Amino acid sequence: MFNAPLITDTGNAAPVLGGRSHTMSEAARGQVGIGTLIVFIAMVLVAAIAAGVLINTAGLLQAQAQATGEETTAEVSNVIQIKHAIGEETTNDGDIDVLNISMRLTPGSDPINLSEASYTLEVNGNATVVNGNEAVSDGVSYHSVQGLADNGTTVVSDQSDLITTRLDLTAIQGVSHLEERTKVRFIAIAPDGGTTYKEFRAPNMIANGESYIL
After folding, report:
1. Which of 84, 194, 202, 209 could disulfide-link to 79, CB 3.0 to 4.6 Å?
2. Distance of CA 114 to CAs 27, 134, 156, 161, 213, Å?
């Protein structure tokens, strides 16, 4: 009868493979955890940067919207009010050659410096733009009528202030004198952009040296 050899445990058995696999899995999980932490930190940094950009953009848009709103409000509210115009015949040629246009503030308007305004005149299809600054424009001058102690001022700051803008059509290039029954279209543009339109008409008969309400 065959007897199997007796196997004796010498104490030098090979280590169990399962233990080594368990040790490697812990290391791998540790590396994955570090990688996840790095990705999370990167995401937080990106989110912080994006939030900063959004906040800056929102602030810029708000500032732009506020500035646009203020400009729009000024353009609507700060307007020159044209009361009336008086035409003068000063050259003895039977034509109106000087316009005296009375101006004041519209209700609710901020003070307006007329020397910073501009005017457009159109006569017989010919139009010209006149700088309101009398220091640089020929044929433009101002005279206080009411509410202003200084006759040299060009600023209307109160509803009661009234200033006459004198336009010498002989000195202003690009526009002709007003013959009898001639219409003149006049546009006053305030420094903030507020626009006022008025149309005047010369009388049916013009005598030398006379003045007329147009």
Report:
1. 194
2. 83, 10, 8, 12, 22
Q: How far is residue 196's CA from residue 133's CA, in Å, rounded to a whole number?
A: 18
Whether residue 92 has pLDDT greater than 80: yes
10-55, pLDDT tens digit by residue? 444 444 444 444 455 666 666 666 777 788 788 888 888 887 777 8
* Percentage with pLDDT > 70 across the chain: 75
Distance CA 88, CA 209 (A): 7
- Note the maximum CA span of the chain: 160
Cβ-contact 90, 147 below 8 angstroms:
no
